[in-house]
Amino acid sequence: MQRSGSLPAQCIACNQPAASHVRRKLYCAPAAWRYGALSAPFVLLAVSIGFNLPTLAVLFLPFALLLAVVHVFVRRKFELQIPLCARHRRAGDILTAVSIALMASVILVPLVLGTAGVTLLWIAIVALLAVGVAQRLLGIQALTLRKLTQEHASLGGAGDAFRQALPEFPG
User: Fold this and answer.
1) How high is the pLDDT of residue 68?
2) What is the pLDDT of residue 57?
C-alpha cells in the first residue's frame, strides 16, 4: 500500500464492513539486523561454552540488552488506522482486558501468596500465552509490517477474505 494511503473500510480479519478503526504502530527492521541481533548473544554463549570461557557467558545478558536498545533505534515505525468489524473489535477488547488481568495476576500472585501460589502462577502464565495465541488467530493482532520504503508499506497477516478483496498492487 502507499504510505500515505489508507486501508479499505473492511475488517482486516473477515472483510465485513468496519464499524471502527484502531490506531496501531507497526514496526519493522532489516532482516539481516533481526536475525543477527537475535542470534549474536547465543553465538557468544556457544563460544563461551565451546572454548570454556565462563567470563564470556556473563556477557550474554548485557549484550542481549544492548542489542535490544539498539533495535529501538534501528527499527522503523509506520502508523496506521486498522479497520475492524464490531465482532472483532469486541473480541479484541475482551482479550485485551483478560490479558491485562492475567499480567496483573502474574505480578500479584507471587507477592500475595508467595511460594504457595506457584501452581496458580503457572496457570496464569499458560493462560496469558493462550490469550496471545487467540489474539493472533482471531486476526486482531495479526497485521504485521513486512517491509517499509519511502513510498510503500508491505503489510502481512490480514485475513484471506480481506487480502483477496484488495486490488492487485502494480509494483
Assistant:
1) 93
2) 86
Place of cell 464499524: 19
- pTM for the whole structure: 0.67
Q: What residue numbers bound the domain in which 131 lies?
A: 20-29+75-165
Region of 142 please: left (phi>0), alpha (psi -120 to 50) or beta. Answer: alpha
The angle at the Cα of 159, spanning 138 to 129, to the nearest 5 degrees, equals 30
SS3 44: helix
Per the structure, the count of domains in the chain is 1
Q: Give the three-state DSSP class for 17.
A: strand
User: Does 70 fall in a domain?
Assistant: no
Is 105 among the domain residues?
A: yes
- pLDDT at residue 155, rounded to an integer: 81
What's residue 140's pLDDT?
62
In a domain, 158, yes or no: yes
CA within 13 Å, CB half, 30: 6
Q: Which residues pair with 78 in a beta bridge?
A: 26
Segments of the chain with pLDDT less than 50 = none
Q: Which of 70, 112, 100, 82 is nearest to 20 (CA)?
A: 82
pLDDT of residue 43: 93
Instruction: Give helix then strand counts, H and E, for the chain.
Output: 6, 4
